[in-house]
Structure formats: structure tokens, C-alpha cells
């Protein structure tokens, strides 16, 4: 793959970034709120893409990591009365530790079993939150005491800064030799091991990085929304949103999932009038993308360049 | 004592329904390699259509059940022709990534179906009318005949499935297709036709399981994901593609769930099965009854 620093894709990305920075001067608080949520979803999806796009492992439990980050931070804030940033630190650490405990044994499994264990982990977390409702707030959710900031513009910039930072770090990881080894192990793990790389160790590293960003994003989301509830950070539906964002945006690109997330959250808002059917419509769109443009939005751009 | 009898009867019926649903799930995995995450949705689709026909169109539960099962078969074929086949044929997806794409696609189909079913039938759980009326007693416990009948029907269908697979040419070909598709093609079978038949068989089994479930525990689009997870757990415990193992683990999962529901709380019915799944996968990834 040729690497150019001043390609027109870079120009498009730069224009998007300028537009994003200028957005608070052009759009209403409502649109900023929608974008803020899309940015957080974008980070969940980017972190997921590192495993799905590069390693080819379907982690059905991204919300296990997001949920641990969110509840770790939320409960530190409410039960231990810690202030904002220490709580976020504990949440992120909880996601990292939980991710390693889950990923360590799970990544040794082959085939669909990894996906299964991660799915089971999410369903377990979901049930445990309801069972220990006294500490976690149960189905209704946990209301936290602190906020990132109360201004919608401030929240927007926090989310934007976070998404840009995450994209840069994840992109560097994905483009580094680590990313190459991960991609190689996704395509032929036996050959990669034969070359002397410990595939499981690299997968675990990818899982840890994914857990770090998912947990951090989950913790920030809680202090943006003011509550942690199973419906917003743990439910299987959130996992599906993550998967759809990644596929529509373009997997194995890190940047793509951000655009996928903006599309998904935006479509959700636009389709709100048709109620329950909105999810079905989004699912159909994602299916069509999967069938006819498996490389997603980013892939459509890429293909145009190669055909020029 | 009464509680024990209640639990045994309940577990007998639930286990039979789970076994039926999981049998289809494991056959379709064995033959076509698809882990169908829309499994629960297909079951629920059959159940809801049967309920709608029986209650709102007034054609009676027997005819309604038939239409419901037919609806499941039709949905299954739509999934097969519109999603699975194109994904199997497309050249823009790498061969080793195909299973991941198909897995994701079935998840999307599950979401699509949940939205449509919610829209058409509402999200509150419905129960189909009972097949027969009347009750009988075991000790002091009252058991409806219909409940017993559900368990018996489920076992009859499982028995018929067993006869089909082990004692008919087509059934043996199905089994062979799950072991070596190439070998089967060499001896002159049309693999495409076997697949078409197996997907129909799968729709049939899922539909019957769905309709029976709706008349015992009730059904709504909301329970679809849980049903898929359940089938997953059963099939993994039993070893993927192992039908007899699935039957045994369906009873383990069904009984565990029933015990939890009666002794602790109905809201955490699935919890012990999930814990068991995680434990088993760590200790014996090939399943309880699976070969390596």
C-alpha cells in the first residue's frame, strides 16, 4: 500500500476536522448533543475495529468493556465519592483489568467460541447489574454526582478532542508493526506463528488497547449523560450499533467507524418519527452495505481512487 | 414434594422445546456452517404469526399453528436466498472473512426482524390459545393436558427428525453433508439441493419450537435475542453439530433455568446457564459431549 502524506483523502479528513471544530458556531445545541453521542459511539466502534478489522475476531462484548468503564467510573463517583478524573481513571482501569481477565482465556479459543464467550460476558454483566441493583441502580440507572461540564459546546469539544486523540493513537497502533502482525494473524494465524510471532500475545495486546479506549469512552459517556444505565452502555443493542457503525463506515480503517457512527446516530434522529421501524431501516441499510460494499463508506472512496 | 413435581413437569416441557429449537440450530451449523443469530427471531416470527391467525383471524389454533410454522419456513428461505447465498457468492469478501460477515449479517437480520415484528404485533408478550383443554393431577399438582401435549409433540418431532436423519437416504445425505461436502458431491449428490432442503428443515423445526414456546411461556419480539443465546448455549454445551449432545444439554439448561425460576427468581432464569457456558468454554472448549 502506498503511503502519501498529502493525498486528497487527507485533505477531506482535514476539511472534516475544520468543519467539526467550527460546528458550535454554526449549529444548534441539539445537533451538538447528537454529534457528541456519535463521537463517543465512534470511539467504541474504533476500538472494536482494531479487533474485528485487523485481527478478524468478532468480539460480541464491546459493551462488556464499555460497561465496566462506565459503571467503574460511575460507582467510584457515587459510592466512593471520588471526584471526576480519579473516577474516570478507575473506570478505565476496571475495563482494562476486566478485559484482560476475559480476553486472556477467551482469545485462546478458536472459531466462533471467542464471540460466544464475549456475548455471554455481556449478558452476565447485564444480569449482574440488575441483581445488584442496590449498588448499581439496576435497570433505571445510576445517577452520578459530577459532570464533565454542563455546557453543550464544552461537552462537544471534550468528545471531539477525545475522538481525534483516540483515532490518532489507534491509527498509529494499526499502522505500526503491531498492526501488521495483527493483520497477518487474522489472515493466516498458523503462518504467522510459524514466523515466530506469539499470535495470542499480540491478540491480547490488541484486546487490551481496545479495552482501554472502550473503558475510557464508557467512563466519559457516563459523565456526559449524567447516568449509567444498562440500556445506554451495556445492552446488546449498543453492541449492534457498534457493529453497524464499523461496517457502514468501513472496517480495517479506524477512521471509517467515526463516520459510520455519525451516520447511525444521525439516521436514528431523522427516523425517530417512524418509531420502532427505525432500527429495522438502519439494519437494512447496513445489510445492503455489507452485501454490496463490504468495505463501507471509506472503501467507496478508496475504490474510486484506484479506478482513476 | 408438590414443588418438586411442578419443577419436573415444567423442566420436561421447557427442555423439550429448547431441544427442538437447538436441534435446528445445530443442524444448520453442521451442514452450512452458519451460526444463525436470527434464530430466536425466526422462532418468534412463527409464534407471533400463529397467535395472530388463531386469535385475530379466528381460524383456530391448529390452522394458525400451521400458518405460523409456514411463516418461519418462508422467513428462513428469505434469509437463505437474500442474505446467505449472495454473501457466499460475492467475490469482494475474502474467503477467510466470510464466516464473520455471515455472522454479522444474521445479527443485522435479527435486528431487522425484531423491528418489523414489534411494529406488526406490538412488543407485549402473547400466548397462543391452548391446543386442548382439561387438566389432570399428579398428587396435588394440577397439570394441564395441553402442557403435557406440548412436551409430547416436541419429542415426537425430535423422534421424527432422528428417523429422518438415520433411516432415509436424504437424511443420511444431510449427515454426510455436515461431515464431508466434497465426498458427498463426488458420489453424485447436488450439494445446492441438500442445502435448500436443510434450510427448509431448519425453518420447520424453529417454527414448531416457536409455536410450542408461545403456547407454554408466551412470546414477544423482545425475547428473540434471549432465545438465540439459549440455543447457542445449548449447542455449545452439547458440542457444535452434535444433535444427541444438544438434547442432553437442552435438558440441563432447561432444568437449571426452571430450578432458578422456581427457587430464586424468574427474572434470572438464564443466569446459571450463562455461568455454566463460560465455565465450560474455559475448561472444555469442544463442549460437554463434543469430540475434539
Structure notes:
The complex is a heterodimer of chains A (308) and B (292). Chain A is built from 15 helices and two strands. Chain A has 308 residues and is mainly α. Chain A starts with 7 loop residues before the first helix and ends with a helix. The model of chain A has no long low-confidence stretch (mean pLDDT 88). Chain B has 292 residues and is mainly α. Chain B has one domain: ABC transporter involved in vitamin B12 uptake, BtuC (Orthogonal Bundle), CATH 1.10.3470. Chain B has helices at 2-32, 39-55, 61-89, 98-121, 145-167, 169-179, 181-186, 191-216, 224-238, 243-263, 271-283, and strands spanning 135-138, 141-144. Chain B has a two-stranded antiparallel sheet with strand order 1-2. In chain B, a hairpin with a 2-residue loop joins strand 1 and strand 2 (141-144). The model of chain B has no long low-confidence stretch (mean pLDDT 86). The chains are: A mainly alpha (308), B mainly alpha (292). At the A-B interface, helix 5, helix 12 and helix 14 of A face helix 3, helix 4, helix 9 and helix 11 of B.
Provide a quick synopsis of the model:
The complex is a heterodimer of chains A (308) and B (292). With 308 residues, chain A is mainly alpha-helical. Chain A is built from 15 helices and two strands.
Secondary structure layout:
The complex is a heterodimer of chains A (308) and B (292).
Chain A: H1 8-22, H2 29-55, H3 62-78, H4 84-106, H5 113-131, H6 133-136, E1 142-143, H7 152-175, H8 177-187, H9 189-194, H10 199-225, E2 227-228, H11 230-233, H12 236-249, H13 256-270, H14 277-292, H15 296-307
Antiparallel strand pairs in A: 1-2
Helix pairs in contact in A: 2-7, 2-10, 2-12, 2-13, 3-4, 3-5, 3-10, 4-10, 7-10, 8-10, 12-13, 12-15
Chain B: H1 2-32, H2 39-55, H3 61-89, H4 98-121, E1 135-138, E2 141-144, H5 145-167, H6 169-179, H7 181-186, H8 191-216, H9 224-238, H10 243-263, H11 271-283
Antiparallel strand pairs in B: 1-2
